[in-house]
Every structure is written in structure tokens, then in C-alpha cells.
Design a protein that fits this description.
With 570 residues, this protein is of the alpha+beta class. The chain has 3 domains: 149 residues, 3-Layer(aba) Sandwich (D-Maltodextrin-Binding Protein, domain 2); 108 residues, Dipeptide-binding Protein, domain 1 (Alpha-Beta Complex), CATH 3.90.76; 234 residues, Dipeptide-binding Protein, domain 3 (Roll). The protein is built from 17 helices and 22 strands. A hairpin with a 3-residue loop joins strand 8 and strand 9. The longest helix has 18 residues. The chain starts with a helix and ends with a strand. Keywords: Signal, Transport.
């Protein structure tokens, strides 16, 4: 479970300047051995009408890996959702599951069993039929090779069995209703192709056999690759486009330049001042949609360290931050300040108005922030910097990733704001890998980060409040980077896990939101935009605010499948 959430965030993070994220390594790939000379980034004119050019990954050169059981950053997009497919797709904008390789699911035995009806007539790209045995085989692979169990499904599963060719049953070791998401959205692999793979963890699967809309590798060079339609795709007439084309862009700057020059049809990038830089260049065809259904951008304070173990200090830090300025200067008004629940628009239907109203600690008020710090025993010294009872000055780094320009600007504003209330905060930038290692291990004072964007607040508050996700400092934690746990929250989380009744889940969520507001375990800054840009010069069918059938962004896996199966040639 934790790893799937992390990998979803890293998909977004691998965009260079793009700062948000689902979903394990954004390092630049080495040149592929034996690859052909670099191809030109722009497709020949004759082919432009058939292949959608996409900017989703930032890589200096491509490595041929189509293993869908690995984290997204280890295999080429759209391996996990485009080449391979899951049983169901949770559509955030519709707040519901879309049947995919499975037609339906049912709970049984007091939510201790979960049964899926596999869609009949689905074939693998080599013509072999998909059956429930393939589903069971996939999950047995995850059990046998723990490194592939990105969602930790075997932490709550007891067994999986194909009852017949069309029915697969999962037995739970404990009641864990939220586990539906991780089972339903697991990419499924064919048993007949994978049963003889000696090491599925290192397997690159260079010529995939899959059920997705795109399976045929037409070109694979170090600077460009292209994948064509599945000849046996189960959705009749789909996909509507012939192929997907991927030039290698080493970073967001290069990808944005290609987007602005009209070389890219579809992207998921942070583009500053997009109306002027992109839309105005071709108002008829250049479009974007940034709904606030990404995760929430967070300032994490390490609660294992003083003074961040004191709720008064955490709330004072929050009140010292001018979120309106951050939204205007750093985020180009693409978003708005967060409320005190820490929830993004993904969870609008769950939001507790009373919790929002009581959370005044997200409002900018330097005077109140100073008063709270005084109350907590942190007085200003002669130099204006506050000191604690141990006489140590409050002097801290605010960690952020080098090159993530929106977050860097936000962190600069935060540092300035904190200095105004007597906290000597300094911006500290790191390359992604060392930054991510530090935040996962709890080796930081203050750090920018993100929350979960999964279907309901359970996942958000398990990360923020649950003791089960707390790891010792120095141990990698996929969640709960701030190391905060609350026993009262544990009881509520367990109650949520045990029920599939929406009304009961809403009641529990309301209580979790109140607990979050009381404890301020993290400092929410703003809901993260779901970045997405597209051109209708050659292709149509993209979702937008007038036709919100799914998220536009290619960065949300597996929701991007909903888009890939709807894009049409113009």
C-alpha cells in the first residue's frame, strides 16, 4: 500500500520542475547500450496524424523496460496503465470505480472476502484469453517477490484463488476495506508469459504481451520510442489513435519548450504563466486544465525534534506563513490556500465544515504566531532570534528539491515569513534522490512534501495520524515522514477499515478531520493542481472542465487509461 502511494507521487515528481506528485528514482538514465543513434525529437510530418506525441517522463535517454510490476519510474510510461491494465480504475472526478478487466466486485463474509468477475472475451495481445487464473497468478507473484508488492497487499491478504475462469476470490487476513483500491488497480500480467521468468524483479519485459490499448513496440531508440495499437484490444474500435510517440526530454524546461513549439500533443507539466506562454500562441488549439485534485502540498515539521513536538509551535509556524502570497507568487494563482483539514478537492464530498471553521491556524497572523511561540517558552533573544529553555536558537533549514521552481519560490516565502516571527529559517535545496532519502528517513527539520490523493480521507489521515505508519528516525518510511502517531486516530482508522457503509465512513472521516485540526501534525499549504496540457491541432477527445470525464493529467496512474482510450485524430 505505502509503496503504491509513493510511486504515484513519484510519477508526478519525475517532471523536473513539476513539483507534485503521485507517484522511486528520478535520476537521469544512462545511454542504452547498443541503441541506435539519436533520433530527432520531432516526428516526420507524414506520421504526425497517427502518433500522439507525449511528454510525461524526464529522461536523457530511454531504457527499454516494460515491467508493469515495478514502480512507474523504473519502467516506461504507460507500462502500468496503457500497455497493461487493472481490474478497476478509480475515477477521482466521478468518485467511483470504473469496471475494466473486471466487470464487478462483491464483498462477502463480513468484508473478509472480495470477489471479482473477470470480463469475458478479453484477449492478451498474442491472442490468448485472459482468465481469472492470470489475476491469481499476478498476486501470487507479488507474494513470492516482496519487492514487487508495491502496495503491500500481502500485509492484509491471506490468499487468492481463481474459482473458475471468470471468478477470482481474495481472502483477507483482517478486515481492511480500503484494500479494495490496491487490489483493483494492480496491473495484471499473463501467466503463460511470466510463469517461466526466473527473476521478475529484474525482468525488463522488452516485448510486452498485455491487454492494454497499446502493446506493439514500433521504434525504440535512445532518444525516441513509439508504441502502436494492440491488435486484439477488447474495447472494439479503440484505441482511436495508431500510436504514442515519446521523445526524450532531459527535464521540464526542454519538455516545455517542445510543448510551446507545438511538438507535443499531450503533457503533464508545470508551466509558469501558461495563458501567456502557451495558450496565447494558439488560442484555438492550445489548452490546459489544472483542477485541484492532486495531492495537498505540505510543510513537514519533524515531530521527533524539539520544538516541533509541541502542537503550539506547529500551529505558530502555520500562522506565520502567508499562503496568499505563496499562491500568487509561487503558484501563479493556479491554486488557493489550504484549509485546516489538509484535504484537496479530491475529497470535497468528505470535507467537514465544522473542522474547517475551527482551524484558524492556517490563517496568516504573525502576531498570534508570536504569541503562541511565547506561550510555548520560545522567547526572542537580543538578535531577534527565538531561543528555547535550552538556550539554543530556533535555526532550521527548509528542505526542497533543486529545480522545482514553484516549490523553491514557496520555500523562499516560508523562510522569510518564519524569520519575521523570530525563527531563523534558511532555504536548503537538494537533488531529488538525497532530498527524498532525507524526508523518508526523518532526517530533516522542515521540508516541503505532499499528501496522498487517494479516493478518501482514510489514506490521508492514516499517513498523518496513524501510529502504524510511524517509523524510527533513520528507517525509510513511505508515509508519515513527520513521525506523528495518535492512539485516538488509530481507533477511528480501524473502524473505517472495517466498514463499507458510506454513511459510517463519512461519520468516521468527520472525526478524523477534527483530530487533525486539533493536533496539526503537518502544515498544509495549498491543494496541488493536477497538471495537464494538450493541443487539438492534430488530436481531440481530451478531458477538460467542460467535459470532465477524467483527470486530464497523464501523471495519475491508472486514470490515464481513461484518456488514452478516448483521444481521437482530428
Amino acid at each position: 500500500m505505502n509503496n503504491q502511494w509513493m510511486q504515484r507521487r513519484l510519477v508526478v515528481m519525475c517532471m523536473g520542475l513539476v513539483s507534485l506528485g503521485g507517484l522511486a528514482g528520478c535520476s537521469k538514465s544512462k545511454q542504452q547500450e547498443g541503441s541506435t543513434p539519436a533520433a530527432t525529437a520531432t516526428a516526420p510530418a507524414a506520421e504526425k496524424a497517427t502518433a500522439v506525441t507525449i511528454a510525461q517522463e524526464a529522461q536523457t535517454s530511454w531504457i527499454r523496460n516494460f515491467n508493469p510490476l515495478l514502480a512507474s519510474s523504473s519502467s516506461r510510461w504507460p507500462t502500468r496503465a496503457g500497455i497493461y491494465e487493472p481490474m478497476l480504475i478509480f475515477n477521482v472526478l466521478k468518485a467511483d470505480y470504473v469496471p475494466w478487466l473486471a466487470e464487478k466486485y462483491t464483498w462477502g463474509e463480513g468484508n473478509k472476502t472480495l470477489t471479482f468477475s473477470v470480463r469475458p472475451g478479453v484477449k492478451w495481445s498474442d491472442g490468448q484469453p485472459l482468465t481469472a487464473k492470470d489475476v491469481a497468478f499476478t498476486f501470487e507473484l507479488l507474494k513470492k517477490h516482496k519487492a514487487l508488492d508495491l502496495s503491500s497487499v500481502w500485509a492484509f491478504l491471506e490468499g487468492v484463488q481463481a474459482k473458475d475462469d471468470a471468478t477470482v476470490e481474495f481472502t483477507f487476513s483482517r478486515v481492511f476495506v480500503p484494500g479494495l483500491l490496491y487490489i483493483a488497480q494492480q496491473p495484471i500480467v499473463p501467466e503463460h508469459k511470466w510463469k517461466d521468468v526466473a527473476d521478475p524483479v529484474s525482468y525488463k519485459n522488452e516485448n510486452p504481451v498485455a491487454t492494454g490499448p497499446f502493446t506493439e513496440i514500433k521504434v525504440f531508440q535512445n532518444q525516441i520510442w513509439e508504441i502502436g495499437r494492440n491488435p486484439n484490444y477488447w474495447q472494439q474500435g479503440k484505441p482511436y489513435v495508431q500510436a504514442l510517440r515519446f521523445p526524450a526530454y532531459p527535464g521540464n524546461d526542454q519538455a516545455n519548450l517542445a510543448l510551446l513549439n507545438g511538438e507535443v500533443d499531450y503533457a503533464g507539466n508545470f508551466v509558469p504563466d501558461i495563458e501567456r506562454l502557451y495558450v496565447s500562441k494558439d488560442k484555438e488549439n492550445n489548452h490546459y486544465w489544472f483542477p485541484l485534485v492532486g495531492n495537498t502540498v505540505i510543510l513537514y515539521a519533524n515531530t521527533t525534534k524539539k520544538p516541533f513536538d509541541d502542537v503550539r509551535v506547529r500551529k505558530a509556524l502555520s500562522m506565520a506563513i502567508d499562503r496568499e502570497q505563496i499562491v500568487k507568487v509561487a503558484m501563479y494563482n493556479y491554486t488557493r490556500p489550504s484549509d485546516a483539514t489538509g484535504l484537496s478537492d479530491t475529497h470535497n464530498s468528505w470535507r467537514n465544515a465544522k473542522a474547517v471553521e475551527s482551524g484558524d491556524w492556517v490563517k496568516f497572523d504573525a502576531a498570534k504566531a508570536g504569541a503562541l511561540l511565547d506561550e510555548a517558552g520560545y522567547k526572542r533573544g537580543d538578535d531577534g532570534i527565538r531561543v528555547g529553555p535550552d538556550k539554543k536558537p530556533l535555526r532550521y533549514d527548509v528542505n526542497v528539491v533543486t529545480g522545482w521552481s514553484d516549490w523553491v519560490r514557496a520555500a523562499q516565502i516560508i523562510a522569510q515569513n518564519l524569520k519575521q516571527v523570530g525563527i531563523d529559517a534558511t532555504l536548503k535545496t537538494y537533488d531529488f534522490s538525497p532530498w527524498f532519502e532525507r524526508i523518508q528517513k526523518g532526517e530533516f527539520d522542515l521540508s516541503m512534501g505532499w499528501s496522498s490523493d487517494e479516493p478518501n480521507p482514510y489514506y490521508v489521515y492514516r499517513d498523518f495520524l496513524g501510529t502504524e505508519t510511524v517509523q524510527p528516525v533513520g528507517t525509510v518510511a513511505a508515509r508519515n515522514w513527520h513521525r506523528f502517531g495518535n492512539k485516538e486516530a488509530d481507533a477511528l482508522l480501524k473502524a473505517f477499515e472495517a466498514t463499507s457503509d458510506p454513511a459510517e465512513q463519512k461519520k468516521i472521516s468527520d472525526q478524523l478531520q477534527v483530530l487533525f485540526v486539533e493536533n496539526a501534525p503537518v502544515i498544509p499549504l495549498f491543494p496541488g493542481p493536477s497538471w495537464g496540457e494538450y493541443s487539438t491541432r492534430r488530436f481531440t477527445g481530451f478531458p477538460n472542465k467542460d467535459n470532465p470525464y477524467a483527470k486530464l493529467t497523464p501523471n495519475s496512474i491508472p486514470e490515464n487509461l481513461l484518456v488514452l482510450t478516448e483521444i481521437k485524430p482530428k
